[in-house]
Amino acid sequence: xxxxxxxxxxxxxxxxxxxxxxxxxxxxxxxxxxxxxxxxxxxxxxxxxxxxxxxxxxxxxxxxxxxxxxxxxxxxxxxxxxxxxxxxxxxxxxxxxxxxxxxxxxxxxxxxxxxxxxxxxxxxxxxxxxxxxxxxxxxxxxxxxxxxxxxxxxxxxxxxxxxxxxxxxxxxxxxxxxxxxxxxxxxxxxxxxxxxxxxxxxxxxxxxxxxxxxxxxxxxxxxxxxxxxxxxxxxxxxxxxxxxxxxxxxxxxxxxxxxxxxxxxxxxxxxxxxxxxxxxxxxxx
Length: 285
Hints:
The relative contact order is 0.18. It is built from 1 helix and 22 strands. The radius of gyration is 18 Å and the shape is globular. It starts with 14 loop residues before the first strand and ends with a strand. It is mainly beta and 285 residues long.
C-alpha cells in the first residue's frame, strides 16, 4: 500500500551517541552549550571489535524533547541527512548540510546537531533520533506529506513522531547545562566475581525507540565497567540483557529482586530532580 513503511524496516544495527566535534565523550552526556553537541555512530563506546556498526545507507536525524512530542530541530529535514559506510558516519549530504567534525578514534565524521530550540523538559533533557531515509520518507507519507525532506516537520500520530517511527529509530539522550545526573548502569560479573567489559544491553526508551550500550572502563568519564544509559527522562525504560559472547546470563538483579536467565528489566523513573543511579547486576557463566 502506498505510504506504508517497508516490510523489512527495523531499527538500525549498532548505536548512536552524542559527542563533541572530535568524537570525545562528555561526562554524563551533559554539555556546556547546544552547539557543543555532535552526533556520532558506529558500534558505540566500549563495544567489542566484533560489534556491529550502523547499517550502510542514508539517514535522517532530529532533536526533540524526551517524549518526542515537541520537535526542536528547526531546519528542513533535507538539511539533516548523513551517510554511513563501513558502519560509521562518512559525511553529510544536501544543499544545506550541518557542520561536521572528525572522530579522532575512528576517523569517522561527527555531525553537529544545531540548529535546534531549547528543550521544553524542565530537567534540560534532549533526545536525538536517527532513522533510515527510506523509512523516514515512508513514515511521512503515512502522515500525508509527499516529500518529508521538503519540510521541517511531517506532523505526528500515535507511534509516529514527526516522521520517525520509534521502533525503527535509534535514540540517545543528552543534557545542556548543569542539572542532576540520572542514569541506569548495568554491570556484568563472571562466575569468579570479575567485572566484565565489552558486554552489551539494549536500552528501550519511554517512547519505544532503542539503542545499544556497552560496559567499559573510562574513569575520567566516571565510567567504571558499566553500560551507561545517561540523561534519562521520567517514565518507564527497559533494559534488555541477552546471552552474548562471554556471558551466558545466569541471573539479573534489579529493583531489589533477582531473576534467572536473559530478560528485560523495567526501570521506572519517577523524578529527575536529584541525582539517581539505578543499578542492574548480571551474573554470567
